[in-house]
Amino acid sequence: VAALLVAVIALAVVDLVRFSRSRQTIAVNSGATKAAVSAAINAAGPLTSYDYKTTVAAKVTRVKPLVTAACAASYQKDLGVLSPTLDPLKSTETVDIMSGGVTTAGTGKVVVLVFGERTSQDSRLTTPRVEGVQISLTMVRQQGRWLVSAVVSAGSGGANATTC
C-alpha cells in the first residue's frame, strides 16, 4: 500500500511539473500567442468568405500572404471544385469576425478559435441568411510570421467545412 501511495504521489508531482511548464511556456510566449490570434482573426474572414464575382486566381492571391504554401494549394483546389457550383447561383458569403482566443499553444504552433457572423446570399434566397460561425485555425510560425495551416469552420446549422 505504501509503495502504491508513493507511486501515486510521484505521478501527481510529474503531472504538476508538466502542467506548470506548459503554463510557463504559454505565459512566456503570450506576445507570440497574441500575434497568432491577431493573424488568425485577420485571415479567417478572407479564407471563409466567397464572392462569385471574384476569380479563383484573385481569391488565391488575396489569401496567399496569410497561409502556408500547402494551405494555399489546397485552398485553390477546393475553390476549383466549388466555383462551378456556386458561381451559377451567384453565391456570396461574407464572414465578419467578432473575437477569438487560443485553444492550444505550443512551440511554433497555436490553434485559435474565432467567432463571427456569416451572411450568405444566392439566387435561391429572397433575403440574406445570417448565422453565427466558429472557425478553428491552426497557426504555424514560418519565416517570422504566423500563417494558417488548417481551417475548420462550423456554422450554427452544424455544417462543417475544412480548408487546407
How would you describe this protein?
The chain is of the alpha+beta class and 164 residues long. Helices cover 44% and strands 36% of the residues. The chain has four helices and six strands, in the order ααβααβββββ. The chain has a six-stranded antiparallel beta sheet. β2 and β3 form a beta hairpin. α3 runs antiparallel to α4. The longest helix is centred in the first third of the chain and has 27 residues. The protein starts with a helix and ends with a strand. 21% of the residues are buried. About 6% of the residues have low confidence.
Number of helices: 4
Q: Categorize the overall geometry.
A: globular
Low-confidence stretches: 19-28
Strand content: 35-45%
Number of strands: 6
Summarize the SSE layout with pairings.
Blueprint: H1 2-28, H2 30-48, E1 50-51, H3 56-63, H4 69-86, E2 92-106, E3 109-121, E4 129-142, E5 145-155, E6 160-163
Antiparallel strand pairs: 1-2, 2-3, 3-4, 4-5, 5-6
Tell me briefly what this model is.
The chain has 164 residues and is α+β, with helices and mostly antiparallel strands.
List the keywords.
single chain, 164 residues, alpha+beta, 6-stranded antiparallel beta sheet, 4 helices, 44% helix
